[in-house]
Amino acid sequence: MQIEHLIIGAPAAGVVALLYAFITSGWIGRQEPGTPRMKAIGDQIARGAMAFLAAEYKVLGIFVVIVAAGLAALYGATESGSPLVGVSFVVGALCSGLAGYFGMRVATQANVRTAAAARTGLAPALRVAFRGGAVMGMSVVGLALVGFGALFFVLMNQFGVTNVDTAQVDFNKIISILAGFSMGASSIALFARVGGGIYTKAADVGADLVGKVEAGIPEDHFLNPATIADNVGDNVGDVAGMGADLFESYIGSILGAMILGAVALNGWFEAALIPLGIAAAGVVVSVLMTYTVRTKEGGNPQVALDIGAFGAAAIMLPISYAIINFALGSSGGSITLQGGKQVGTVDLMAAIVAGLAAGVAIGLITGYYCSKGKRPVNSIVEQSRTGPATNIIAGIGVGFESTALPILGIAAAIFVADHYAGLYGVALAALGMLSTTGIQLAVDAYGPISDNAGGIAEMSSLPPQVRERTDNLDAVGNTTAAIGKGFAIASAALAALSLFAAYRGLALGGKQLILTEPKVLIGLLLGGMLPFLFSSMAMKAVGDAAMDMITEVRRQFREIPVLREALTLVAKAEEEDRPLTPEEDEKVQAAGKKTEVERCVAISTQASIRRMMMPGFLALASPVVVGFWSAEALGGLLAGTLVSGVMLAIFMSNTGGAWDNAKKQVEDQKKDYNPEVNTGKGSDRHKAAVIGDTVGDPFKDTAGPSLNILIKLMTIVAVVIAPLIAG
Amino acid sequence: MQIEHLIIGAPAAGVVALLYAFITSGWIGRQEPGTPRMKAIGDQIARGAMAFLAAEYKVLGIFVVIVAAGLAALYGATESGSPLVGVSFVVGALCSGLAGYFGMRVATQANVRTAAAARTGLAPALRVAFRGGAVMGMSVVGLALVGFGALFFVLMNQFGVTNVDTAQVDFNKIISILAGFSMGASSIALFARVGGGIYTKAADVGADLVGKVEAGIPEDHFLNPATIADNVGDNVGDVAGMGADLFESYIGSILGAMILGAVALNGWFEAALIPLGIAAAGVVVSVLMTYTVRTKEGGNPQVALDIGAFGAAAIMLPISYAIINFALGSSGGSITLQGGKQVGTVDLMAAIVAGLAAGVAIGLITGYYCSKGKRPVNSIVEQSRTGPATNIIAGIGVGFESTALPILGIAAAIFVADHYAGLYGVALAALGMLSTTGIQLAVDAYGPISDNAGGIAEMSSLPPQVRERTDNLDAVGNTTAAIGKGFAIASAALAALSLFAAYRGLALGGKQLILTEPKVLIGLLLGGMLPFLFSSMAMKAVGDAAMDMITEVRRQFREIPVLREALTLVAKAEEEDRPLTPEEDEKVQAAGKKTEVERCVAISTQASIRRMMMPGFLALASPVVVGFWSAEALGGLLAGTLVSGVMLAIFMSNTGGAWDNAKKQVEDQKKDYNPEVNTGKGSDRHKAAVIGDTVGDPFKDTAGPSLNILIKLMTIVAVVIAPLIAG
Fold this sequence. Notes:
Two copies of one chain form a homodimer.
Chain A: H1 3-7, H2 9-30, H3 36-76, H4 84-117, H5 122-159, H6 169-215, H7 225-265, H8 268-290, H9 301-329, E1 334-336, E2 342-344, H10 345-370, H11 375-383, H12 388-401, H13 404-434, H14 437-459, H15 464-475, H16 478-508, H17 518-559, H18 561-575, H19 582-592, H20 597-629, H21 631-668, H22 684-725
Antiparallel strand pairs in A: 1-2
Helix pairs in contact in A: 2-5, 2-8, 3-4, 3-7, 3-20, 4-5, 4-6, 4-7, 4-14, 5-6, 5-7, 5-8, 5-14, 6-7, 6-17, 6-20, 6-22, 7-8, 7-13, 7-14, 7-16, 7-20, 7-22, 8-9, 8-14, 9-10, 10-13, 10-16, 11-12, 11-21, 12-21, 12-22, 13-16, 14-15, 14-16, 16-21, 16-22, 17-18, 17-20, 17-21, ...
């Protein structure tokens, strides 16, 4: 069997994943959506989420068309590039967008059905929530493999080249076309993460301020149109945003391994076989392992999730070995690195294992810094006793400190991967972490689905044991999610490094990037500054978008008479600490149908999309502007952004996570307002912890996660424009 | 006249500066120290400051001896280095330490005498305060030129070489010995800044918490031993810390220009003539310009300070031109850069002007981001309306944003300097900003002296117009101080860059630092992380040291009976809102003499010195450990630390400054507790702004200013060990 035919396995595995997603989403649709009230709330969330996607995709559609036309025009005019770059950019953006659409559609069906299933027991609720997440995971990897795999085949036919000569124009053309796909996916990811992050935090703040503080109705009440937006925001940020994020990580690491592999292995198909083969196998393993995720009533869902995610990773090791061994067969069982060193299958596997080990270690460290009861969170809880200022200082201190060990982990992974297999090893180390993205993302997306289910149970006044079950679901999976975060950070750094090396080769050819060159240093400083500027825009956007949301909710409360009346009833009952009478409840239910959720969602969407323009523009334009001035400066820019971007990303995510759990830890403690103890819900210590948590929101949900994408998007833009600025 | 003889001008100018400092400090000592009460308070502060210095220097003495012995041993064992490195390290540390001692001794005399002079009028008060600062400034530049200049002469005699051959062992030896001096000064600077920063903020927090909150006595009351420590802290951090900081910047930029100049000009004396000549002229100009700083009663002290500082800088431009022109004379009026380009006096001047322009621009930008009434501070004031969380988010957003323009300024300076005069130009750009350090530092140190004078006036119950005058003095000089800050940041970055380039040449010889090499990338990531880890240690140290201080103050309040009694009297009078009766006052005065200030100061000193060990160790050990692993990785480490260190330094200083002035702006507003307006002292908005200000304290006074030193200390350590790790 020829290697060319084996590659077809990648899109084929993608089709398997999509079939799984299709069948599973049908199964979810057939589950019981619960009481009419639950159904109404679920519908509102689903409608809101779709309204967001519709508005977002309209704007992104225009953006994609303009950029694609620009790329096609620029590339059509030069000999070194192909106008196909524009097409592949569109296909990449489209695949990523579709994956977000499918995933969010099913997640917004699964949330209410998880709540409904939780009325029966823990096991059926876990099944619905996890399968909902699995649809997201499989949509992402399925569309990635189908899109990218198909593009690769078209390219090979178009150019008819299988051997690699890095001096050939065709080599640069093929890489820039493949990179176009990745750039499309990364652009969508950046906008989805930034926009989603702004959205969810703006809705959160807006809902709380107008509903709870001004109108005096309880948190999460369905009369408040921003409450729905808040729940929509969870889906928008944590499901669609994360899906697009992992889609671009997945493609980025495959691409990095392919470009460096093409040089190392001296053949396109051989180079593609390793990343695409491992990815394809990873998809099949992920699909099979989803069936192991089940629990008995009274069982521990944590064990079920761990078996699924870690089992898949373990199974992938021997499979990866076999694939690499096969791929090296055509070059005599070993490849020759740039320095002349011969490396074999075991060396390449060492690189993959180094990446995996670093990812797991970083995940555990991240978990440690953000977990209740551990030293870092304990120190924040302790310092919260003397007020918000010490809470903030302690949190920032913890966050700064938390960058140290993950960076050592990344450095160790680079060292080992390079030692065994050079820069190609670094690319493989990134790839190894992402081979089981399918099931990893299923576990990640399961979290917000369970969270939403809990909210729906609360809003629908279901019996307390239902909420207990959804809380139980929500509480586990944290370890797996933390490791997912570790994978995201480590793989972003490693994938960016390998793409960075690819950029150097494409843009500078035989010339090296010399660190003491003033242009490189200028680029380095400017690049180091960009993540700070980007984060400042994201944080400012949250504040501004929240103001827009507040204005709209106030307007609805003022201008819709039945709503105003219902609000008064609820606030009164709340004040008198009694449930609504059946008569009142009927009125309130009727008024709930009058809230203009779509309008509220649309306004918040517009605000968040408007506010995501500038950071997005910064990410896309900076490498282009700097690159057309000097290819060396662009090299420095990428390195600078990588360094300060990774630091800020770790800092912001961990600080936010630690503040969040410090607040929860104070809430867990028994109320005691004695000044010596001063703890529990409502205490001054709690108030201080709540302030830290609020500061942490835009840290961990808006700016932090966007920085990983910023780093890679800038690098991929550089790779795409490299042929244009070379020489 | 031979060039060798001209160089003697540098130590000679240093002697002039020291003579000025000696005469002026005598003059200050002869001024009227005011009422017995003022004198007592002034004595307490002076005793406290000396107690701190004594404790600090004891510890630093041990440290200096150990490191010097280590350097001498390491270097004695190799052919490429000289054990003289250890000696020059000691001399550098000693000169920096002496400058700190002189400056602080006089500053703690000048504060009380400024308050006394302010009873007569503004003009005499300005004279005392400014001359107090000038002693600090002239001690710093005087000792720097005498020490460094003398060392240079000894070296030239010792080795008998005047021509430079970079391949010669002698070249590396001379550089590492000169760098040893700079390393000594930088080590003292780091400890002085970190220790001083921890000290001043710990005393601040401790004094407030125990005195104001627990005992109920007014802020800054002399019965509180931590209040004196607080005032001591201002001297320790803002006078001694800043002096040591500028001492090491001054030497660092001279050294950078000498090393790169030795290569460019191919002669040690020619290379030394430019930086030492400019520095010597700058000292003489600074001394002369101090006599122009005077104001009439009712005049604006701002104008006087501006004339002094800007006038000196303007006069230095033609003088620098003449010196450079003369130095280039021996090589035919131009020098040949590495690429083969010929550059003349005008090109070198262009580089100097680029540095000056960038420094001024960055200073103005820094001023803009931290000033009352400007957009950034206004936005924090606006966001404080909704509480501490939005105050913090807005402040961090402003701080992140504030990195952008200064980095563009630094990038532009590098671009211009490199364009006209290559890397040597970058070194000259750093040098140009620091030629008038003498008068610049006089203006900087004048601030805390006026501030202290205000505190003494308050504590001694002087008439309100006295406090008004000292406030008037304190309020001006902000622009000059902001520009000083701009100079500090820009010159740190540029000097670090030129030393970085020197390191590359020494450690790698003909080999280049290639940015895509995995070892360089590992270094880059680790280096990027160090400023975060360092800042986390500094911030945690403030918290811990404050706790030690609190414990000690509580003990004194509990265990000294007359003090306990006096505290009750004051607290009672305070509660009844009446002055003390003469009888009570007598008791309180007597009790004030019983406070164990030295003990309190010593304990806080020990705590801050203990806590500064780890960050100091981190800064010194990291380059050594990484360098002995790989010289390439150390190159990456320096670049990474430079990038993230500069960003964090700008971010932390500006965020802290903006929060500080946002609080002051709220306090300036008329009290209005109406929820719609919610402003003025005591309002919820004010409480939120106070929290931001407290968070900003360790940002702007502990971690932020130390980062500039961290960057340069690590680079200079790398230069010192370069001959040992080369090859």
